[in-house]
Design a protein that fits this description.
The chain is α+β, with helices and mostly antiparallel strands. 40% of the residues lie in helices and 19% in strands. An eight-stranded mixed sheet has the order 1-5-6-11-10-9-7-8. Strands 13-12-14-15-16 form a five-stranded mixed sheet, sandwiched between helices. A three-stranded antiparallel sheet has the order 2-4-3. It is elongated, with a radius of gyration of 28 Å. It binds adenosine-5'-triphosphate (ATP) and magnesium ion. The site of magnesium ion has 2 residues, from loops.
Length: 436
């Protein structure tokens, strides 16, 4: 036997039991997005490398070391598996002139790729729901995006016991001019503390000093805490925008803290940035992050227009969600169709298709086997009802109906009454189960 192959490290199979939880999550997310007027968009998984280096910034974790980039050997193009969705979404909006008749609310969901060290909550192929509002300049849309996240946490049943399971942090990154003024002072301050900086910080000192502020290195905390705060450099317009966001959050009674060290890992942000964080997932606690990116559309060659968006990590949300017991039942078929004998098998196909025409979910037993072993499979399937077809039934153009959960007698039903009998039976079962 040849050696079995394995998936790439950090890229996971999602097996049937959890895939059903993913589908339930996706359905919840679709309803939630529709409630806020967001429309779906789907972009390719592969884009020109340049799109990400231009949008995300050369001196960021993602572009420096996390991108899966390669040369297309067929035509020499430089390509990258998308590490995030905003750049692709904005590219698509520009390319198809989607803002020609006004602003847009868009969303997408799917895999992202980053070459990181795999650990719980951090994978090389992971999944995000991304939400982008394009063409809205005011703080109203920022605030609405934050509120809508809070609603999703409620829809998922987080925050049930105590209001502390997912908390909100916000900050403002101001304008490019304000960041430049702050940057000069920040660099001067950090230079005074050269000796205490770690390798990452030294490397970033003159390229991306803002990122030093969100260092997780315990040895750097004191220095970073005392560093000049960007918030103190904001002018009236930026402060007004930030106040506008906070006013809506306060009206809604949504608790938040201002974290002046929240800077986000991508260069395109300005003004509002926010993160939702949980303590239940260890170091990988950020489940959702976003903010405003008013310069990005122009930077990628589009007609200048503001933007604001966020992305949430589906794996992290699901690991919070799977521990709750508010999930719908895993899907079982309505009917398990047992059949024995050559003639019966061909008849069973007609029975199954007929019932599916009527709207029932039918698991047709394939692969033969004894009546007893088929009935065991029927029980294990979770279906409330087995239908039994042998050569007798085939000859009589009938089907034997056998309830699997209730202690009821089996009965033989003529083919032309089958759909109705099955319907009556399932309806009665659901009523008994209290699921109606
Ligand atoms: P982190 O600080 O955890 O590396 P990030 O700032 O790189 O996060 P973003 O680019 O803002 O993350 O992505 C938004 C969300 O996507 C994150 O908050 C997280 O929930 C999720 N995410 C990011 N990278 C990964 C990954 N490698 N594996 C799983 N989820 C991820
Ligand atoms: Mg990261």
């Amino acid at each position: 036997m040849s050696q079995a192959l394995q998936a790439i490290r950090g890229m996971n199979d999602i097996l049937p039991d959890s895939a059903e939880l993913w589908e339930e999550f996706e359905a919840t997310v679709r309803d939630w997005l529709r409630a806020y007027g967001y429309k779906p968009i789907r972009m390719p998984l592969v884009e020109p490398t340049q799109l990400f280096s231009r949008a995300i910034g050369e001196v960021t974790d993602i572009v420096e070391k996390e991108m899966y980039s390669f040369t297309d050997s067929l035509n020499g193009e430089q390509l990258t598996l998308r590490p995030e969705g905003t750049a692709s979404c904005v590219r698509a909006v520009i390319e198809h002139n989607l803002l020609y008749d006004g602003p847009r609310r868009l969303w997408y969901m799917g895999p992202m790729f980053r070459h990181e060290r795999p650990q719980k909550g951090r994978y090389r192929q992971f999944h995000q729901v991304g939400v982008e509002a394009l063409g809205f300049p005011g703080p109203d849309v920022d605030a609405e995006q934050i509120l809508m996240c809070a609603r999703l946490w409620n829809d998922l049943g987080f925050n049930g016991g105590g209001n502390d399971s997912v908390r909100l942090e916000i900050n403002s990154l101001g304008s490019a001019e304000e960041r430049a003024a702050h940057r000069a002072e920040l660099i001067a301050y950090l230079e005074q503390h050269q000796d205490a900086l770690d390798g990452d910080a030294r490397r970033r000192l003159h390229s991306n000093p803002l990122r030093i502020l969100d260092s997780k290195n315990p040895a750097m905390q004191a220095i970073v805490e005392a560093a000049p705060k960007l918030l103190d450099f904001l002018g009236d317009a930026s402060l007004k925008h930030f106040d506008g966001v906070q006013a809506v959050l306060k009206d809604a009674g949504l608790p938040y803290v201002i974290n002046t060290r929240l800077v986000r890992g991508l260069d395109y942000y300005n003004l509002t940035v926010f993160e939702f964080i949980t303590d239940r997932l260890g170091a990988q606690g950020t489940v959702c992050a976003g903010g405003r990116y008013d310069g990005l559309i122009a930077q990628l060659g589009g007609k200048p227009a503001p933007g604001c968006g966020f992305a949430m990590g589906i794996e992290r949300l699901l690991s919070l969600w799977q521990d709750l017991d508010n999930h719908r039942e895993q899907s079982a078929p309505d009917i398990y169709l047992v059949n024995q004998g050559e003639r019966a098998q061909r008849y069973a196909f007609q029975v199954a298709e007929h019932l599916r025409d009527t709207g029932f979910a039918v698991h047709l037993h394939c692969g033969g086997g004894s009546f007893k072993s088929q009935m065991k499979k029927a029980d294990a399937s979770g279906a409330p009802l087995a239908l039994i077809v042998g050569d007798d039934e085939a000859a009589a153009n009938a089907v034997t109906l056998k309830p699997l959960r209730a202690a009821q007698e089996q009965q033989r039903i003529p083919f032309d009454q089958l759909a109705e009998s099955v319907g009556d039976f399932l309806f009665a079962t659901e009523e008994q189960d209290g699921s109606l």
